[in-house]
Each structure stands twice: as C-alpha cells, then as structure tokens.
Amino acid sequence: MVLDERVLMHVDGLRHPNPDFRSNAAYALGEIGPAARAAVPALIEALKDDNGVVREWVANALGRIGPAAAAAVPALTEALKDSENPTREWAARALGEIGPAAAAAVPALTESLKEGNPVIRSNAAEALGEIGPKSAAAVPALVGLLGDPDALLRANAVAALGKIGPEAQAAVPALVGALQDGDKNVRTLAAEALGKIGSLAGPAVPALLEVLRDRDLGIRTRVYAARALEKIAPEDPAVVASLTGVLDDADGGLRILAAGALGKIGPAARPAVQALEAMVRGADRDAGLVAAGAILGIEPANRLAREALFGALKDADEGLRILASGALRTGVPVGRDGVSALARALKDTSGAVRSNAADALAALGPDAEEALPALKEALEDPDEGVRASAARALERIQA
Predict the structure, then answer these.
(1) I need a surface site. Which of 116, 139, 171, 178 has the fewest CB within 10 A?
(2) Which residues of the chain fall short of a pLDDT of 70?
(3) What residues contact 104, with CB distance under 8 A and at least 6 apart?
(4) CATH numeric code, 1-133
(5) Nearest to 71 by CA among 48, 106, 93, 43
(6) CA distance 376 to 57
C-alpha cells in the first residue's frame, strides 16, 4: 500500500524519540481520517508505545480512520486492558467507530461494561451498539445496565439494544420499564429501541400506547412511541385508534407524524379517514396536505385528498407545492389527470418540486408512460438532482 507524503511524514513521526512528537503524529493521522488507512500497521505497532499519552492518541486515530482500521481490532481489544484509563476509553470508542468489523471484540467489550470507570462503560456500551446485531451475546449485560444510576450509561445501553435490533428481543421487558425512566432521553431512546426491534416487540404495544396518549410526557418521547407502534403493530386496531386520537393533538409536529404513520399502515387504517379528512379541511394547510397524502395511502380514490394535492401543485406558495409533490411520491395510482399534473410540475420554478414530481412519476412506473416526453426534457434540467430523478423515472417507466 502506497503512503502519500503527509501520511508518510506522520508515520515517521510515530517513531520520533520525543513522546510529544509521537502524540502529535498520531493526532495528525486521526485528523486525516480514513485517507490515512495506509498508516494502520504503524499505528497498531504504536499501540505498544511505552508512553500512555501516545497510546491514547493512537487509539483515537484508529477510531477516526474507522472501518478501514479493521486490522487493528485485535490490538484495540488488547488495549481495553491497558494500564491507563484514557487509552482504554479511546480503545472502546475506536472499536465502535470501526463498527461491525469489530465483532471479534464483543466479548472483551462486554467485560468492559463491568469497569469502574463510567466513561469506559459508556464507550463500551456505545461500541456494542455500533457493532450492531453481531453484539447479540451482550444483550443480557446491556440489560443489566438499565438500572445503573448513571443516566448517560443507561442511555447508551438502551441505544445499543436498539441498534442490535431484533436480536435484542430478550430486552423488550426491560425496555418497556425504561419507558418510565426518570431521564427523558432514556425514555425516548427506549421507545426508539422498541421500534427497531420491530414486530418481535409486540408485548410493548400497551405501554407504548400509554406513552402516546400521555400528553404530560415530552413531545419527543411521544413521537418515538408513535414511530415504534407503526413498526411493531401497524395493523393493530388499538394502534390505529391511538394514532387517530393524536390527529387533534396540540402539537402540530405530532399530528403530522401520526397522519404519515396512518398513511403507511394503508387500508387497515381506514377508520382514521374521517379524522384525516377533517385535517385536510382544517386551517393548517401543511398538515392538511400530509393528511391528504396519508388518505391516498389508505383510499387511493379519495376525491378530497386528490383535489387537495393536485390543487396545491398549482399554489403560489412554494412550500405547499413541495409538500404536495412530496406526498405523491408514494406511488399510489393517480390516474391520467394526475400523471398530466405531475408532468406539468416538472417545469415548476422550484427544483424541489421538479425533483419530487419526477420521483412520483418513477414510483408509478409504466402507468406514467404519458409523462415520458416531459421527463426526457427534464434530463436537461439545470438542477443535478432533478436530472438524476428524471433518469431514474425514465428507467422505471420503460422497464
């Protein structure tokens, strides 16, 4: 592997007799990041430096190089037992930054969860999450941290369980308990983690429904509860009913999120259509357009939703045109008139609208054949994103 001049200079610096120079060289290689991958063998050797500060910066550099430093996993795993706390802290962090390729370090990182140093424990928990499903063997140890007095450690453990995903199914009861944690960040991360575990987190649905309905809880926690419910049990009538109940919430962001979730659920969310129609007719036009898009996901032929979206494509307000064109990217059948409206939108003054229109036509596939001439013109659009969207649309329509 060829080393470029600046990497070569800093690799030479790792062998300087002055430890300050060696530390600075390691720091500089970390600043270069993944482009310093050729320095990994030298950095692995430098992890044996007799100066603790040098070893600390070497571990830091390997982490900043990231997955390209996978060859350093055995050395970093060994560094988890270093005599200096900072080196152990950075070694744990580096293994997480390397990601799934550091799976061999899972047993050692799990052992690091027992450290007395809270930074090492937090970094180890975070690293296990970054390694992902290959950290499944660490689930019991991570669950054991959910009762720790350190809120940051609890948060990192909960986040790690979510990143492990369905392999963390055994943690569902503990995560349900974490929905009542005294720290709002932990509560929010618990809701998010349950969503990432997906359908296997079915036993958490009642608790998540309570969180969603509790207007005294922070909005962020309720938002993640709504997202989790959509992923775990989208067709559960109780989930549809609770999301429908949120459509009149005082928080506009939560209303919009609930509407979008109902649209993704599809026909099983038909009981929500009346409430969504009320949103379309309401004073909040942004929320109304999101609701209209959701309705089309449930009832593609709904006249009110179609009129709202296609009418907004001609609105003087650019933001409304962007919302309307974005809501049509789901690929619901729009008929001949809808294809014509989207083709006209390819000439909108807003690049975002033009790009959305092309994406919407792409989602329709061969049904959007009448838009081919307009899409071919869009290949000459001054906006690179629009040109790319038009090319994808042409490919899908003519497939």
Answers:
(1) 116
(2) 1-3
(3) 73, 74, 77
(4) 1.25.10.10
(5) 43
(6) 54
